[in-house]
């Protein structure tokens, strides 16, 4: 899972964002956010994969982008079938520009999350922010924050978790500044570990008290 948390940097208001983009010479486009059903998510999988590749693979070779796309589609096909799967899309006109999705932690959830959250300070259900992708032209305008807020609106979870690679220093710094808590480090394939060069970090934010 990839979550470039630099895309989460939010503007103080939609009007301020629009004014700033205009000053910086960006085209100003209104973005609308809506929730997708499981069937809609499955039917839009090619559009989701396109946004995924354009969000993360801009500097990769064509072969790497194709490989990343196929790997993402395999993971997405599994995730969309998970109980409690939920997804939102941000669109500018007919064009999707960002997606976020997640699901409650179950027995087959992402490796290491259940073990780490079970011993944490917050008890209760856990929701995993499994994927967040925003096209570069729509970053830093509050789109990602609005996506996450909409995604979490219907959950009854006590906390939300996200996996972040420790090399993503800006993302880790942002999580810390926003009050998220680092729960520990896990191998991408499972198990709690201490070798950060082969691991990802699990961060959590309390949703209810």
Automatic annotation (TrEMBL):
Pfam family, one: Acetyltransf_1
Keyword Ion transport on entry: no
Domain N-acetyltransferase, first and last residues per copy: 31-203
Superkingdom of the organism of origin: Bacteria
GO molecular function: acyltransferase activity, transferring groups other than amino-acyl groups
InterPro entries found in the cross-reference section: Acyl_CoA_acyltransferase, GNAT_dom
Keywords: Transferase
UniProt-listed Gene3D superfamilies: 3.40.630.30
Name of the protein this chain belongs to: GNAT family N-acetyltransferase
